[in-house]
Amino acid sequence: MPRTPPSHPEVSHPEASRRAVLGAALAGLATPALAQTPWPSRPIRIVVPFPAGGGTDAVARALAERLAPRLGQAVIVENRAGSGGAIGSEAVARAAPDGHTLLMNGNNIATYPLIFRQLGFDPLRDIVPVGMVAVAPIVLVVGRRSPYRTLADYIAAAKAEPEKIDYASAGVGSANHFAGQLLSQAAGIRLTHVPYRGTAQAMTDVISGNVASAILTLGSVTEFLRDGQMRVLGVAGPARSRLAPQVPTFEEQGVRNYDANIRYLLAAPRGVPDPIMQRLGTELAAVVQDPSLEALFNAQGFEKLWVDGPATARTLREEFAAWAPIARDAGIEPQ
């Protein structure tokens, strides 16, 4: 259909035209200036939602030291502990999405909706991973006087007397707790969970025989394995740990699909501009390849790992879907 001509002729106003041209020119000058705002423009905070001295804190501090010179700004680690990591994680989710506030946490952040009823953020939506950087192998350990010499001994005893064998973890809803429930399901046994407030007392009670076993990180028990106070029955994951290559995996010993290892990731609030996320990802990937970082990680009980942000986000979604039925079967309810 032909366009209907206007009923009144259009009139050009010189002053209006000059204002329009001037406005366009100013906009053209302002846009590049905004686009070139330097980042980072001030120190960067990496929030660790756990107390200082733990595994997450150690990984964050190692990264901060190496990221700072690459980014040209100080990188400060801030510990904001409480509610199993939820308080500090929520603080980051609510922070300004300008790339100056980041989160260091484990992949078990995906289980938060399964254990916290009043969670003030969605960890799968409001936190955007930059990348996964390290893994802490999970192991099943018993005391040196334990009758269980192998994983086969342990599983046979658990099948003979369901719920008689107990295992210690770092608390209800912890990564260790979920790992124990996954072992029960994967091995077809029923274990009794004994939650502790952290791992120190749990290790003491395993050594003394007050609790039959514990599911802990390899790094946290290395000293006790070395001096013979503990015995390790298996390591989680698809392959043996480079930190203890003599320890067989659960898979090798007949327990299929048992991967409960803790993987550490750096993340940002949702909404950080793509160029900043890309820069963070590039610098983080370079830091992870630093030989000095690998040596430090190994000494602390971690193995280096690099998974980029989008792949890490997919992994977290998959883990939530995988852990949800395990939490339901174990009677783990949001508190």
From TrEMBL:
SUPFAM superfamilies xrefs: Periplasmic binding protein-like II
Top-rank lineage group of the source organism: Bacteria
A Pfam cross-reference name: TctC
Record-stated family: Belongs to the UPF0065 (bug) family.
Protein name as catalogued: Tripartite tricarboxylate transporter substrate binding protein
